[in-house]
Structure formats: structure tokens, C-alpha cells
């Protein structure tokens, strides 16, 4: 059992399948009391039944939705100690990502970024007021560290998610709020299955099962590490990008050319 998780009241959003489900299952195995949130009520109830948790279906893409989920979760748990802001969407579609309509950008931003901001607005003041602190875990992506071939909304919002998590850690880390950002590459989820010709690129360093992401999250929490890198090689890519950005961008352009030749959007 991990000391930072055992007996804690934990919420996992987007936990009906994929990484969220794996996180919820692993939190329960760590002895936590888990609230399972998902937009799909049936999936939320199924996962909660599987792990002995509490289902709290709901849409965390709006202020009202976040408040409702946190309110119901607080009633169920008494106190939210750890919040996994895991819900996320791709926003891909069409043949030219630059022409993604504003309403799609708005939706992806609401789910991939503002859901985190809105949850933190609710939780951080409570954690500071009672002096017990809390833990906020953002599921971002290696795309948020390295940029992604393909979907502009996904890449941009995952950068923003990492940026918000960094800001949260800098601002409140010394006041008892621990923050982590999960940044995997390819993971065996429906999002990867739907990636088409990009699937091979996203899986070049092997596509991991969602359970491996949950394992990496628990290890990072136990060790107090901000970045959760289920694919350890991402650390090297991230360092190379910072050390020589132009060289990095040149390599990414060559990858884009390969994707173009393969006929991906």
C-alpha cells in the first residue's frame, strides 16, 4: 500500500474506461475510497461496482458540472484528498486540423484544460482552509511536452494542461498541495485505436496498457515526482527539445512528411 493513497478519498474523472478506469482500479487496490466519474453513467456505475467505489456520473466540462461532481463526491467521501483530473478528448476530425471550427476548439479546451482549472478552483481553497492539503493529478500527454503530429486542439490543450499543473505546483506546492502531470505516449485505449495512420507514430516506443500508466502514477506519487512518464524515453526527448529546439522541430517536420505520405490527415 502507498502511504499517500491508502485510506484517502479519491476522485477520478473520465474513469469509465481507459486510463481513468485503470487509475480507479489501482486506487482501490491501494486501499483508497474511490469516486468514479464519467460522462457515460453506465460505465461509471460498472467501474464503481467492480472496485467497490461510488459512481458519480457527470460532465466536468462546465463550471456547473464540476461543482456538481465535487459536491456529490464530497458527500460520498467526507473529504476529497486526491483529485485525478483525467477526463480528456482528442478533438481530431477533418483533413486539415488548422481549420478545426471554433466550437470544437472551445469543447476541447473546456475538457482538456478548463475542467482542471475549475476543479482546482473548488478544491484548493478547501485544502488550504483546513490545513490538510491535497493532491491534484492532471492527465496530460507527452504531446503536452513534445508537440503532437495531427490534432492541433489536442496538442495545444495538452501543453496548456501541463502549464497549468506547473503553475499550480509553483503557486501552492509549498502550502500543502502536491501536483503531478501524467504524460504518456501511446496507450492502448480507444483514442489510440481511432488514431488511424498516426497509430504507428504514437506507438513507436510501444503502446502501453492503461494499467502501466496507473502503475507509473502511483510510483511518481510515492516518490514525489511532478512528471509521471510511463514511457521513460520521453524524458530524453523532452531534454533534447529544450537543448536544441530548431533541431527538434526539424525532426518533427520530417515525421510530419512521413505522416503526409501515409495519407493521414
Offer a quick outline of the entry.
The chain has eleven helices and seven strands. It is an alpha/beta fold and 265 residues long. Helix 2 (41-51) links the parallel strand 2 and strand 3 (54-55).
List its traits.
54% helix; 7 strands; alpha/beta; 7-stranded parallel β-sheet; Rossmann fold; 265 residues
Describe the protein in words:
The structure is a single chain. By secondary structure, this protein is of the alpha/beta class. The longest helix has 28 residues, at about 100-130. It has a single domain, classed as NAD(P)-binding Rossmann-like Domain (Rossmann fold). Helix 1 runs parallel beside helix 2 (about 40-50), helix 1 (about 20-30) packs across helix 9 and helix 3 runs parallel beside helix 4 (about 100-130). It is built from eleven helices and seven strands.
